[in-house]
Design brief:
Elements: H1 2-11, E1 20-22, E2 35-46, E3 50-53, H2 60-75, E4 80-82, E5 91-96, E6 105-109, E7 113-118, H3 121-135, H4 138-141, E8 147-157, E9 163-169, H5 177-189, E10 194-198, E11 200-201, E12 204-205, H6 214-217, E13 221-222, E14 246-247, H7 252-263, E15 268-272, H8 280-285, H9 314-330, E16 335-337, H10 352-361, H11 366-383, E17 387-391, H12 393-397, E18 404-407, H13 412-420, E19 423-426, H14 429-432, E20 436-437, E21 450-452, H15 455-459, H16 469-472, E22 475-482, H17 490-497, H18 500-510, H19 516-532
Parallel strand pairs: 1-8, 3-4, 3-5, 5-7, 9-10, 9-22, 10-15, 16-17, 17-18, 18-19, 19-22, 20-21
Antiparallel strand pairs: 2-8, 6-7, 6-8, 11-12, 13-14
Helix pairs in contact: 2-3, 5-7, 9-11
The protein binds ligand TNX.
Amino acid sequence: MKRISLIIAACAFITGCTGTIVSDKAVSVIPQPASIEMTEGSFRLTAGTQANFLYEAPELEYVAETLEDMTEDIFGKGIKMNLSSLDASKGINFILDEELPAEGYKIEVAEKTIDIASSTAAGAFYALQTLRQLIGAEAFTAEKVKAVEIPAVKIEDSPLLGYRGTMLDVGRYFFPVEDVKKVLDIMAMHKMNTFHWHLTEDQGWRIQIDKYPRLTEVGSIRKRTIIGKDPNGEYDENTPFDTIPHGGFYTKEQIREVVDYAAARFITVIPEIEFPGHSLAALASYPYLGCTGEQYEVRQSWDIEDRVFCPGKETTFEFLEDVLSEVVELFPSEYIHIGGDECPTKYWQKCPHCAKRMKEEGLKTFRQLQGYGIARVEKFLAKHGKHLIGWDEILEAGVTPNSIVMSWRGTEGGVKAAKQGNRAIMAPSTYCYFDYYQSKDRENEPLAWGGFLPLEKVYSFNPFEGLSETEADYILGVQANLWTEYIPNIKQAEYMLLPRLAALCEVAWTAGRGSYGDFLTRLPAMEEMYDACDYNHRSNIEKR
Ligand code: TNX
């Protein structure tokens, strides 16, 4: 295998004079495919190559669009798509193979053909993501490319985990639609399939709700923002704030645009509407949602907020059900995330409405009161055919086996959920919090939340630790979380995501069975691809 790539690398010399790029990236694929076998020869991809679709399937047009865009990036003009072809003797052939797993694919690159087999359009889409890496970054950056020689290879591949997520917090900082699309592009390149959109926070409400216009008129704007590291509750007159209002929200039309853009990349969008905590922006918009009814301001610092939804009042649930009714209309996802994390009970303890509710419902603790609220939302979502996802605190609140637990305070929540028969998604801060520092050399890194999560640690994540084989079946997958208290723009978001998302996507794809040493040999080609896409990333190549 080595000898072949050496010969190919030597051929790269002729690049430029002939306009032919000779790729040597055949073994540098991330996430690592289940099997790769290099064979003799190469396929010459040119602007004249045709793509033949030998079957019809829903969403296959997204695959065609992807290949068209990809080849346009190389040649300045996309290759021809033959959407109902019977001729597979040359070109790139899309073939139906119903034996293959849902997101799996086979690629066979030979002299005259590239055969891409899959049982779903998603599989064909992932095959194209692999093909992009076989082609290599140079083809996407070089001028006047006439041909790309892709080395002959046989790949058979499918993911081991079905949920491969990335969360973007747009509450702390608003990211315009163009930025969200960039995150979706980055996810697609890593074969990630679920975008968790954290849409509401203490510091900003970001989704248009027709029935409650003040959520965006008032709740989407904070008048100023704390500068530097938040002193976690130790605020005084010397705490520095800027004087610039920060705001933004997505209209329903924009939400649909993002959902469609994601669908074209085989990504499901799961919205998160936080309840009962992290909700000050909602309370600032409609004061009756809080225990005291006082008028608050949208939060201007980070840390945990005490003022939360009042689960004692019936009007709180009316509001939530109205909001969720509009939310379920916008998102085809079968899951809706309702938060549930970090909810102080300080205000509930003094609230007559909460006391009354507890008495009526026979609730003994404030956590049970929280559980009562979550259970009501769970029932409401079920009526709309949706499952609830919540942060691992929902376990303490007591949920039915239909709800899904997102484990963030370590993996304990996920393990507990799996053992009691709840499905879980692993997103522990210890391996998946991409708002943590990537290096110990903090001086030379942008200000971050804290913590230390280097690439190697992400890679070492075993999502099934502590679980038997049957319990492991309850783990749907893993997720990277990008909290944005200290990430004010997309360039910094890219930097925090990359290359750690490469490590996590391989954990998800191979269920943590890969080798870090081997991953590092494939990472330089991925980083070249980031550069070709103009993504800001940390380079782990010289610093490892
Ligand atoms: C905890 S994870 C939070 C977020 C913060 C994050 C910072 C979770 C469910 N809640 O609100 O942004 O820590 O790392």
